[in-house]
Amino acid sequence: MAGSGDRRVRLVIGIDFGTTFSGVSWGLDGDLGDLGIEVIQEWPGKGNSTTQKVPTVLAYLKKGDTFRWGYQAEGMANAVGGVKLLLDKSKEVLFRPAIDSELIIKGLERKPVDVAGAYLKALFAHAKEILDRRGIGKLMQSMDVQYILTVPAVWSDKAKDLTKQAACHAGIPEADLYLLSEPEAAAIYSMHTIQPNSIKKGDSFIVCDAGGGTVDLITYEITQTDPIRMGEVVEGTGEICGSVMLDERFETFLKETIGKQSYQKMSASSKQHALQRWKVDIKPSYSGPDDEDDLLTEVYTVPVHGIPDDQKKGIHQGMLHMKNEDIKSIFDPVMERIESLISDQEKKAKKAGKAPKALLLVGGLGASEYLFNRLKLRFKKLDIMQPQNAGAVHRGLEGDQVQTRKARCHYGVSMNYNFDRKKHDATLAYWDIYIEKWRVPGCMTWFIKTGDTISEQDPISHSVFRNVPLNFDFRFKDTLSICTKEESPAMENKDVVKHCTLHVDLRNIPKPLFDRRRNSKGLEYYHIAYELVLKPQSACLEFEVVFNDVSYGVAAARYY
Ligand SMILES: Nc1ncnc2c1ncn2[C@@H]1O[C@H](COP(=O)(O)OP(=O)(O)OP(=O)(O)O)[C@@H](O)[C@H]1O
Ligand SMILES: [Mg+2]
Question: Is the Metal-binding keyword given for this protein (predicted)?
């Protein structure tokens, strides 16, 4: 029976919420023994055929909250796709379906986070139904359930927080939710597919997760082999230059080739046919030219119903004949972006004395033959591999294999310090009536600096103190700021960007525990010292409030 032994059974559910496709996998650990990991392959609207992923598409029906999702929503009027990209406002969205989706969502008077939440709720409900069919559903009450949700490593913390909110909206308890960075999930999974004797302690490798929307890269070093432990060698990087950019470029190519006017005249379903041909047949199978002569070879045809014949343009009987060089010209700028991201990681890792041995290519675009061929030519010293990816569940079942990570920016809080004429601008100083000293606001205390090695096992603790009147309500706000410049400034300035507000609630602490003081004027006040503890998780920072060595829970963070 589940939960009958000493150790409660753990159920780990991994959710891969992608720009174009999403997936769910689950695994158990504990008394039920190792039942392996199931990657869900049955989806509503897909009948008997199986596939590991379901489209990240949702379409609301007329009015109200009912909607279709996944395969059932594909091709429907007002279908919303690419909603994930709308969660990160700090990145410019150039992907047309996501831009169209933004308008549809606005028209529905909803926010992207609501739609992402609705989609995740449906995905999660489906996963539960599958678990029911496997006889696990009813036992869930007696199990420790952990949900692992992957997010791009390049996401802003605000976007990660919105993803978290969407998951909570889907009914996933926040306390059981862990955000995992996508390349990290890939690294963990890849370690299972690589021959154990081919990796040694000290080896480093680059993971390039090229998905639909984002391309995320991180370089890891193997710090231990049995069990495998890894650490980040250099900070991860990435961009929104995934496979949907190729779709976007194909549409532009089509428009330019047949002419804007003719393109506008094409019916929506004809355009859809042409795009499907690109997405399903051409893009995934393109492997590049064999040689220069091969560039002019006609390799694919695309249906362009209703467009008149034009020999020069290669249009014949409603078909556009695409040459090898046409497809190459669509791919190349995106391939060059990816190559330059890889080259950056390689350079940085070499500089850190950890030259990478291998490159693991994962994600939909990571499976591209053309990308693989180009990378083999360009990065001759790297062993290039394309393992299948399903890492989130492994992270849950096997614990934290990535033990150290590199901070991507400086994180700090602005504090008031005692005035020091050597360091501070006297015009900023103010008189503190409680401690009777000149103080200066806006002094930066940096918890974490860019490139610092951070680890979930080593929370970073920082003392904060405040002097408050006796009738204070014991709720504080601390502002966490970030700086992406190389140097972290000593004082707040334009490079210090407000990142989130941490809400610290000390109302539950009995007042006698606070340090009550009286100054020379007889003014009584509380001097309250607490610790803000930052736990750097895979994809986000978690903040805990500690007073007198007792944890008072997580400080709620509201992002700017
Ligand atoms: N062989 C291939 N070559 C190029 N693109 C491919 C190939 N196979 C699949 N794709 C594309 O990859 C994308 C899906 O990949 P994946 O599932 O990794 O992305 P995602 O999880 O939706 O996106 P992201 O992780 O960026 O949010 C789709 O755009 C699909 O058309
Ligand atoms: Mg993905």
Answer: no
Q: Which ligand is nearest to the CA of 19?
A: 1
**pLDDT tens per residue, range 33-75:** 555 788 898 999 888 777 888 999 999 997 778 999 999 998 8
Mean pLDDT, residues 350-379 taken together: 94
Say which CATH superfamily domain 182-239+339-396 falls into: ATPase, nucleotide binding domain (3.30.420.40)
Evaluate: CB of 242 within 6 angstroms of ligand 1: yes
Find the largest Cα–Cα distance for the chain.
Answer: 95
* Residue whose CA lies nearest to ligand 1 atom number 30: 364
Q: State whether residue 282 is helix, strand or coil.
A: helix
Rounded average pLDDT over 440-457: 92
| Alpha-carbon span 105 to 70, nearest angstrom | 17
Domain covering 10-181 assigned CATH 3.90.180.10 in the classification: no
- C-alpha 59 to ligand 2 mean position (Å): 21
> DSSP assignment, residue 93?
-
CATH of 407-559, one of 1.25.40, 3.30.450, 2.60.34, 2.60.40: 2.60.34
445 CA → ligand 2 middle, Å: 36
Q: Is 275 in the pocket of ligand 1 (CB under 6 A)?
A: no
Query: What pLDDT was estimated at residue 3?
Result: 41
Name the token pair of 296: 């002019």
Give percent above pLDDT 90 in the chain. Answer: 64
- pLDDT exceeds 80 at position 197: no
368 touches ligand 1 (CB under 6 Å):
yes
127 alpha carbon to ligand 1 midpoint, in Å?
A: 22
Give the CA dihedral 380, 385, 386, 391, nearest 10 degrees: -130
Ligand 2 center–CA 17 separation, angstroms: 7
Decide whether any atom of ligand 1 lies within 6 Å of the 244 Cβ.
yes
